[in-house]
Amino acid sequence: MGGAAPAGTQTLSQPPTTPLSHPLSPQENQPLRLVVCGTDTDVGKTVVSALLVQGLSASYWKPVQCGLDGGGDCDRLREWLQLPEPRLLPEAYRLAAPVSPHWAAELEGARAGVTGGPIEPSRLALPAVAGALVVECAGGLLVPLRRDRLQIEQIQVWGLPVLLVARSGLGTLNHTLLSLEALAQRRIPVLGLVLNGPPHADNPRTLAALGGVPLLACLPPLAAINRQSLAALWQTSGLGDALVAAARDLLSQPDPNPMHR
Q1: SS3 195
Q2: Which candidate, 121, 181, 172, places its Cα nearest to that of 146?
Q3: pLDDT reading at 150 higher than 50
Q4: Which of 24, 118, 172, 260 could cross-link with 146 by S-S, CB 3.0 to 4.6 Å?
Q5: Per-residue DSSP letters for 25-42?
Q6: What is the DSSP-derived secondary structure letter of residue 198?
Q7: What is the DSSP letter of 186?
Q8: How is the chain split among helix, strand and coil, in percent rounded to 5?
Q9: Is the pLDDT of residue 259 over 90?
Q10: Neighbours of 13 (CB within 10 A)
Q11: 117 phi and psi angles, rounded to 5 deg
Q12: Can you tell me the distance from the alpha carbon of 100 to that of 108, in angstroms, rounded to the nearest whole number?
């Protein structure tokens, strides 16, 4: 179920009658492109990404994959959704070690018998695709991509709005509010927050009051992950309608990203 935006935030606008010029979306009716990032590892980013890819008929891109047991997240979406290959975009980096990207890249080079080279930002340029796009990050916002560059800096370069995924239970308040603070400090637009996991009696209300962004949905655990269960969750969660409202709200505001000026 979606939550209301906290007091003090801008009321969701009505659909504009003419196309809007905005770095988030050149036209109001343009398919949504967004970045899915988590407050921590194992908070359900990939399940939420799969839900969005199916619900928005989007392409999926995981630019940096760390850990290849089971094939990686792109392979999970392939299994869950039975997507055509053109909608599963190849990773810029497929790194074997299930560790932070900066270290995984160094270990990859060491195994090859050479000095491990850092991840190159030039290889992380957004792919040119028609239609909606879901970009899934590797872990949390402040994960290093290399020893002199954080993931949140790459998100700022992309200039896409962020959907932040957090666990629903104990510990999420601190992790989530710190993540939202980091995004706000860098003026990265945030579509909203999705809580993942068993329902909690108070955390949704607290985050809606203190987070400063819409609470888009609270998603329960799924007994099985497949096209049918994700389609049902898309309908019952209200996430699609909440995303439309959040995107229109962002379009009605000045672009906060200083890199677009």
Answers
A1: strand
A2: 121
A3: yes
A4: 118
A5: -SSTTSPPEEEEEESSTT
A6: S
A7: T
A8: 40, 20, 45
A9: no
A10: 13
A11: -85, 150
A12: 12
239 to 75, 96, 192, 218, 260: CA distances (angstroms): 24, 33, 10, 9, 28
CB distance 74 to 47 below 8 Å: no
* Bridging pattern class, strands 33-38 and 59-61: unpaired
Residues 6+ apart with CB under 8 A from 257: 23, 156, 159, 187, 188, 189
pLDDT tens digits, 100-135: 999 999 998 766 655 567 899 999 999 999 999 999
Handedness of CA 185, 191, 196, 202 (dihedral sign): positive
How many angstroms separate the CA atoms of 55 and 60, rounded? Answer: 12
Domains and CATH numbers, the chain: 33-62+132-260 (3.40.50.300)
Q: Which two tokens stand for residue 85?
A: 């290959």
Strands 133-140 and 144-146, bridge-based pairing = unpaired
Residue 196 host element (H or E): strand 190-196
CA neighbor of 243 nearest in space, from 190, 176, 167: 190
Active site residues: 62
Distance from chain centroid for Cα 173: 18
pLDDT in tens, 187-230: 999 999 999 999 999 999 999 999 999 999 999 999 999 999 99
Taking the alpha carbons of 171, 101, 63, 22 in that order, is the dihedral positive or negative?
positive
Q: Rounded to the nearest 10 degrees, how much is the dihedral formed by the CA atoms of 188, 194, 195, 199? A: 150
Q: How many CB atoms lie within 10 A of CB 81?
A: 20
pTM score above 0.70? yes
| DSSP H or E run through 127 | none
Residue pair 227/54 in contact by the 8 Å Cβ criterion: yes
| Residue 243, phi then psi, degrees to nearest 5 | -65, -45
pLDDT value of residue 247: 94
